[in-house]
């Protein structure tokens, strides 16, 4: 459709994702569209449009123009200002660098979406009274670091996800005070530029009843502790707020309103990189708090009673909390717990993550009893913390993740809760042995990643294990599994990935995995051929095997249950087995196998007769 002029009565036109055409034809089509004078709705989203013609200014009836995800689009013509009836303009996720001044002449414009335009660095409004009808101005995820002082004139704004406090001639935070109808999310950046702390109070966040989420962001140097505290005091939001984020705050303590039980609707709190704070606010008082993240509070040494309440009686601190995340707490050494009147704290906590807290150690550094905990993640902490897990009562724990414990040599160091069903171990380079005792009796899934010595481990004692993933191991190894019994016969899924020095698979040991249904081999650079595989396989995936040259015909003859076969990025694989693949096979997927692709061409490929019976065949994303 290079010419649409004959559709002269058209009101709605969408070419969403349909502009994968040559440049000359693209220009012709765009010019043709610009002749549809009655057009009211035009959607060119997700296309490779690079330029909008000046002629678009003749679409006088256009009300909606959607250009989102047009990554190649860098500018708009000045003629856009002629679209006097335009109400909705979406430029999100484009490469727009600057808006034409004429955009601010669009009196009927209600919605201007610029989200995710990183090259857009400034927003210059000539006369805000010309766009007085603007309801939504979204500049989130842009490079805009300063807003014009005329922002307060946009008094009908309902959605302003990002407000930037400027320096000198830029916008003043008190201008927010005149935007009384804001709804939804509000990020306030550049709070280090607030010169008069009274301006923060004049922003009047306490009366903006329709704001549900507020993010307060200081940029650059976090100095000015006293001033930062006064600014935070003045930014107290309304009591029905649901979500609060505070980033890079420079005060040593938080304002009295942070953690006040009066915020009865608050469900999520994030405190990020508040590096001068030495004490946490009393967040345990928030009755509806479900999610809490505390990251980069470098000066916190001890978490004690102040975390649970401000001294008032709280019957059950953190009674609604389900997710708790600590990270980057470099000096944190001690975590004290309070006894609540009716049975403890964190009674509904389902996930607990401790990341990069190197000084947290000892047998009492975690809550002793977390009755609802299902997931525990430990990263970059003291090895003593991992070893002490047997001291805690977690009757519901199902998933344990251990990451970056660089001195840990043996796992597990004690008896783990029998309820654990999944364990992930990642980046523990000194781990050389797995104990034969202490494993959860119900363990179903084990993932070992980036641990040098794991190929030598005997996992045969894990008699409930059904899924095993061994990934990114650099250890020199001729064959794996090394011997029969090294892997449990209960396995139904086995993933071997990025074992760069593994030369071959031990067919006799694999053949004894009589329950194995899914096998994936990825990034094993030295493997040249496949051994005999378990006859129970239903899915086989081979990917990024640069030296794989052939597939064993005897292997595939016995795979009478195989349903799915995937072969990706095996550049030296020359052909399929010289016999029909199993009759059970229902899906064959081949991608980036240069030698194999022409042999599988429908009707004429040399291997076509071996695969023609397969119902679904896909080669390089194309069905054949």
Structure report:
The structure is a single chain. The chain has 624 residues and is mainly beta. Among the domains are: 1-144, Leucine-rich repeat, LRR (right-handed beta-alpha superhelix) (Alpha-Beta Horseshoe); 528-624. It has seven helices and 32 strands. The chain has helices spanning 23-33, 197-202, 225-234, 383-387, 507-511, 553-557, 608-611, and strands spanning 12-14, 41-43, 64-66, 88-90, 111-113, 136-138, 162-164, 184-189, 211-217, 243-247, 268-272, 291-295, 302-303, 323-327, 334-335, 351-355, 375-379, 399-403, 410-411, 422-426, 433-434, 445-449, 467-473, 477-480, 493-499, 502-505, 518-522, 539-543, 564-568, 587-591, 616-619, 622-623. The strands form five sheets. The chain has a 20-stranded mixed β-sheet, with no helix packed on it. It has a six-stranded parallel β-sheet with strand order 1-2-3-4-5-6, with no helix packed on it. The protein has a two-stranded parallel sheet with strand order 13-15. β28, α6 and β29 (564-568) form a beta-alpha-beta unit. The protein is flat. The mean pLDDT is 89.
Main attributes of the structure:
624 residues; mainly beta; 20-stranded mixed beta sheet; six-stranded parallel beta sheet; 22% strand; repeat; leucine-rich repeat; LRR_R13L1-DRL21
The main β sheet shows up as: 20 strands, mixed
Question: What would CATH call the class of the domain at 1-144?
Answer: Alpha Beta
Total helix count?
Answer: 7
- Helix share bin: under 10%
Whole-number mean pLDDT: 89
Number of strands: 32
Instruction: Using the 3D structure, state the CATH architecture of the domain at 1-144.
Output: Alpha-Beta Horseshoe
Determine Rg (CA atoms, Å): 31 Å
Organism: Ziziphus jujuba (Chinese jujube)
Keywords: Leucine-rich repeat, Repeat
Domain R13L1/DRL21-like LRR repeat region: 173-296
Protein name: Disease resistance RPP13-like protein 1
């Amino acid at each position: 459709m290079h010419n649409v002029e004959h559709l002269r009565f058209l009101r709605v036109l969408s070419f969403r994702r349909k502009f994968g055409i040559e440049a000359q034809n693209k220009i012709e089509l765009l010019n043709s569209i610009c002749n549809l004078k009655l057009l009211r709705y035009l959607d060119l989203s997700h296309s490779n449009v690079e330029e909008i013609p000046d002629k678009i200014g003749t679409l006088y009836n256009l009300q909606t123009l959607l250009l989102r995800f047009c990554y190649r689009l860098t500018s708009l013509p000045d003629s856009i200002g002629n679209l006097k009836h335009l109400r909705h303009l979406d430029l999100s996720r484009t490469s727009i660098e600057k808006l034409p001044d004429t955009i601010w002449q669009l009196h009927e414009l209600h919605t201007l979406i610029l989200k995710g335009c990183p090259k857009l660095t400034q927003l210059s409004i000539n006369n805000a009274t010309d766009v007085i009808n603007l309801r939504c101005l979204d500049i989130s995820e842009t490079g805009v670091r300063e807003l014009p002082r005329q922002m307060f004139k946009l008094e009908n704004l309902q959605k302003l996800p990002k407000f930037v406090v400027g320096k000198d001639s830029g916008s003043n935070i008190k201008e927010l005070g005149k935007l009384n109808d804001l709804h939804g999310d509000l990020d306030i950046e550049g709070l280090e530029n607030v010169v008069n702390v009274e301006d923060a109070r004049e922003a009047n966040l306490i009366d903006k009843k329709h704001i549900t989420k507020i993010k307060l962001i200081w940029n650059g140097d976090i100095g000015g502790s006293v001033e930062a505290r006064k600014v935070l005091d003045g930014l107290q939001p309304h009591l029905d707020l649901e979500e609060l984020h505070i980033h890079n705050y420079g005060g040593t303590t938080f304002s009295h309103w942070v953690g006040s039980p009066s915020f009865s609707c608050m469900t999520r709190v994030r405190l990020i990189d508040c590096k001068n704070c030495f004490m946490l606010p009393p967040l345990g008082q928030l009755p509806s708090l479900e999610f809490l993240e505390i990251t980069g509070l470098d000066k916190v040494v001890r978490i004690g009673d102040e975390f649970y309440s401000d001294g008032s009686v709280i019957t059950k601190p953190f009674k609604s909390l389900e997710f708790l995340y600590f990270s980057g707490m470099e000096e944190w050494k001690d975590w004290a717990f309070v006894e609540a009147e009716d049975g403890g704290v964190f009674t509904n906590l389902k996930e607990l993550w401790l990341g990069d807290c190197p000084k947290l150690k000892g047998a009492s550094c975690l809550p002793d009893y977390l009755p609802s905990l299902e997931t525990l993640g430990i990263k970059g902490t003291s090895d003593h913390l991992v070893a002490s897990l047997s001291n805690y009562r977690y009757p519901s724990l199902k998933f344990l993740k251990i990451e970056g414990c660089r001195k840990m040599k043996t796992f597990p160091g004690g008896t783990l809760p029998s309820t654990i069903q999944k364990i992930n171990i990642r980046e523990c380079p000194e781990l050389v042995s797995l104990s034969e005792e202490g494993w959860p009796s119900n363990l179903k899934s084990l993932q070992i990643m980036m641990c040098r010595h794991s190929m030598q481990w005997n996992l045969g004692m894990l008699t409930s294990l059904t899924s095993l993933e061994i990934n990114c191991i650099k250890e020199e190894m001729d064959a794996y599994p090394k011997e029969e019994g090294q892997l449990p016969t209960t396995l139904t899924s086995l993933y071997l990935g990025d074992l760069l020095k593994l030369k071959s698979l031990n067919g006799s040991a694999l053949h004894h995995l009589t329950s194995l249904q899914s096998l994936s081999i990825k990034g094993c650079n030295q493997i040249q051929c496949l051994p005999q595989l378990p006859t129970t396989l239903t899915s086989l995936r081979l990917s990024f095997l640069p030296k794989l040259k052939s597939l064993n015909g005897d292997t595939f003859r016995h795979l009478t249950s195989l349903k799915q076969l995937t072969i990706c990025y095996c550049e030296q694989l020359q052909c399929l087995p010289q016999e029909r693949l199993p009759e059970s096979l229902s899906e064959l997927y081949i991608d980036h196998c240069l030698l194999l692709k022409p042999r599988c061409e429908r009707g004429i490929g040399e291997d076509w007769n071996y695969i023609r019976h397969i119902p679904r065949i896909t080669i390089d994303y194309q069905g054949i």
